[in-house]
Amino acid sequence: MCIVYLAAFLFSLTSEQCSSKLIEDSSQSFMERMHSGKTSFIYFGNHVNPTIKLFVEQLVMSADALQDYGISVVKVNCSKDAIANYCTGEKLMTRAYLFRGSEVLRSFDIDTVFDVNAIVSHVLFSVLFNEVRYVHTPAELLRVESTAKQNSDIVVGHIPVLGLPEHRALMEAAFVYGTKYQFVQTTGTLVLKHMGVVDPSSSQARLWFLHCKGVSRRSDPCPSTPMRKTLNTINIHTFLQLMEAPLVPQTQHLDRATAQTLALQLRGEVGVVLIHRDSPNVKAALKYNAAYRLPQEDVTYFTLNSAEGVVKLFKEELLQEHKLEDEEEDEEHWSDLDILDDEVSESVYRDRDLMLDLESVIELTSDTFQTTVTQNEITVVLFYFKWDAVCMAFIQSYIEVADALEGMNGVKLAAVNCGEWTDICSDQNVTSFPTVLIYRPMAEAQLYRGMLGTKCLHGFILLSLVSSPYLLSSSAEVMSFLEGDLYSKHMYLTPVRVLGLFSSTHDMGVTPFEEAARLLRGETILGLFAHKEAEQWVEGLSVNLPALLVSRGPGVPHEVYSLPSSSPTDLVSLIKQVELDRFPELTVENLPWYLELGKPLLLLFIGKEDSTESTKALAEIKRPLSSGQLDSFLPCWIHLGRTPVGRSILEKYLGFVPPLPVLVMSRLKTGEEVFLFPPERPLMAKNILQWIHDVQSGHEQPAGLIPDGKWGPPVPFFDFLAIMDQEAPTYAAQRAPKMKTGGREDHREQKHVTQNQRQTPHPSPNPQAPRQHSEL
User: Fold this and answer.
1) CATH number of the CATH domain containing 200
2) Tens of pLDDT along 563-587?
3) Which helix (H) or strand (E) holds 133?
4) Same domain, 217 and 97
5) Which residues span the domain enclosing 234?
6) Total Cβ atoms within 10 A of residue 318
7) CB 23 within 8 A of CB 63
């Protein structure tokens, strides 16, 4: 072993003194390489900027490392030799390619192969693609185990961040031991839980040895041994050598059972050997029957009284110091990684090596943008920056929507990388990212204002295909729109229908309503009935034409509102408000709209909607709601099964989760207190009203407080405002936000609508609800 290390050391010295192993190909040598059948990692470039210079430096170092595996690292200067298909196009200088002969095994963004460890690990993983299995779920791992039983043992490596030294160490081990063991790599937390890791969120790389070769029955699991040391090349090699050693070497006279017990419990950490007492090399006193030697220390003799005592000796004492040293080394290594300033950035950083499949999304350039957005009924365009965490988190959802809509006539999804095509983003007035715009021929682009998720964007696009407004010409068509065939056609998108009622097409309010309908396309299904028969739909109500009629589905009473003369923007706000349910189920998607009302929350938490207690509680709150006694509140409810975050909210409110259903009141104008309906009192309408009265009169004590909603930097290094203030005092000082009144910061006159003679204020004319989450 000493000779091997010395040779490696001398080799490292001489390699630094020798010229780099990086090869520079001309056109001719490149073509010869394509016909050689050998594996090459090739980078094509034409000029050097600071970023490219750093990458080339890492490329030079990787050439020395990959040469040991028979892989050449090559650089082609496209300024001198323009290689067809590789020295042209927008990907020039941002990609490197792995060839086997003339076949491209894989291409890499240079952001992925960012240093020598990343280059070596990703290249070896690609070369060993058929030998190293990649699994995402426990089921996939179990299938690998089933195949390996009676044939080979398995080495499982969990690498939370690809491209780091741990990943390289695993791939190098796979290259050496791949013919002997089946290597498996995973990055997900599901497999960690399956392997018994208590905290799967830990960023530590891990390794297990699965003893499958000796398992004869398919139904039996493969025993596993974890490697408890830091994942590096030397530790992996030592660990695998221990796995190859028999549990107890051949002996004749000592207690095999004790040795077997010890060896099983200390496997992977301590080797157990049985030595004959009469051996001439044994010089221990007769009172001792065991000995151990720690790395780089002398032999220590002791008396073995029980296997448990020896396990305790090693686990709690002897190995503890070495374990702490490993942990300190591991923590020091991970501290070198940036502590990212939010969870979105961190998740994107962790998944930065994953290659996004953009085949279903058209990548637009300055040459293709105009023709693409004008040739389809709807063209959805995502404007993004590749370096922005929110953009990269959303782009996966965007791809899922594109895959779901692939093949749908008249709909195309495209994307513009504003880091490369700044002129397009400037021409389209895109100043925030990510931004989604919907283009239609001969119409202004429409901004998508919904949540950045697959379900919301998918629903928005499908709703955008519906005519807005639906032009209805008879009462029969109105009935079909509200409850009949026209309703059923789009029932899966939304149950709510909003109908504008006008006495004739000459009414001055028709044009603003049509414009508001166009602004709400994709968000709401609106109908327009401008006809003398419209009077029948408000007959007997204290509302005159023009009016809004809201239907929430068959069998639900219609709601009618007066429709004042307003601008299209004001109408958008009005329509969005009348769509809101009077007793809504709060979800992550609709929460911002309801918080805009600025009312105190009367919030019911339920576990199962169909339970007797939940059904009664919902009915008891509806009773005073229908009589207008709760108009100053926002009665609402959260189903903890469909909205699991509700449990966290309840625990934040009260510090615990009481038996469900439970009623709380929060967001009072008097402060941030949270009040809990007394659990010993029956949850009945009269008791609820009395409780509300007691809270308002100060006779009830708060059960909790809404937590401080400040979102500060996780570490001082990210307190950029404080850093700015050091340079220019008070320049970037954070100030408390202005207190809102009734959900608005402005003091514009509140307009009112009438619902059966009740006055209900609607929110300010800003049609865009807050996109960030608000604290309940």
Assistant:
1) 3.40.30.10
2) 888 889 899 989 988 888 888 988 8
3) strand 132-134
4) no
5) 130-244
6) 17
7) yes
